Amino acid sequence: MTFQTLFAAESGKLYFGDMIWYLICFAILLVAVKHYAWGPVKDMLEKRRQQVIDDLDSAAANRKKAETLANEREAALKNSRQEATQILSDAKTNAQKQGEKIVADANDQAAQIRKQAKSDAAQAKADAINDARDQVADISVAIAEKVIAKNLSADDQKDLVDQFIKGLDD
């Protein structure tokens, strides 16, 4: 291989000087591309990479937050169910106690009414007996006055009535 064949293209006869010129143009082009295109593209890619990382971190944080909120909601729902069950249980207990109290009050009132009725009946009986005694006494006195043809004193009347009533009981 000769020196010319190394640096020259066989069909177009490329020379070493042309090759250096092409290399210099290529190097200038690389520097220009690096300065004007590669830097902004690299910066844009870095920003995009950082945005993707931030989005992934944000998504993970949001997912954790959502899981936490879901767990809190589930716990709150469980607590509200327990509270509702407790409220219902308390309401049933209170209703049962209230019902028992109402029944006890009604029984007490009924007992009081019965007691009052017995008392009223006893009083009415006593009043009736006293009225009957008074009437019997008046009738007895009237009969006795007619029989004896004289007026009796109050003590005499009372003695006669008591004797008469004793005679009725026997």
UniProtKB/TrEMBL annotation:
Record InterPro entries: ATP_synth_b/b'su_bac/chlpt, ATP_synth_F0_bsu_bac, ATP_synthase_B_chain
Membrane topology of the entry: Single-pass membrane protein
One GO CC term, this protein: plasma membrane
Transmembrane residue ranges: 20-39
Location of this chain's protein in the cell: Cell membrane; Endomembrane system
UniProt keyword terms in alphabetical order: ATP synthesis, Cell membrane, CF(0), Coiled coil, Hydrogen ion transport, Ion transport, Membrane, Transmembrane, Transmembrane helix, Transport
Coiled coil: 42-83
One MF annotation (Gene Ontology) recorded for this entry: proton-transporting ATPase activity, rotational mechanism
UniProt main location, coarse: membrane
CDD domains linked: ATP-synt_Fo_b (cd06503)
Recorded superkingdom: Bacteria
Subunit structure: F-type ATPases have 2 components, F(1) - the catalytic core - and F(0) - the membrane proton channel. F(1) has five subunits: alpha(3), beta(3), gamma(1), delta(1), epsilon(1). F(0) has three main subunits: a(1), b(2) and c(10-14). The alpha and beta chains form an alternating ring which encloses part of the gamma chain. F(1) is attached to F(0) by a central stalk formed by the gamma and epsilon chains, while a peripheral stalk is formed by the delta and b chains.
Family: Belongs to the ATPase B chain family.
Function statement: F(1)F(0) ATP synthase produces ATP from ADP in the presence of a proton or sodium gradient. F-type ATPases consist of two structural domains, F(1) containing the extramembraneous catalytic core and F(0) containing the membrane proton channel, linked together by a central stalk and a peripheral stalk. During catalysis, ATP synthesis in the catalytic domain of F(1) is coupled via a rotary mechanism of the central stalk subunits to proton translocation. Component of the F(0) channel, it forms part of the peripheral stalk, linking F(1) to F(0).
Annotated NCBIfam families: ATP_synt_b (TIGR01144)
Name by which UniProt lists this protein: ATP synthase subunit b
Organism, scientific name: Lactobacillus corticis
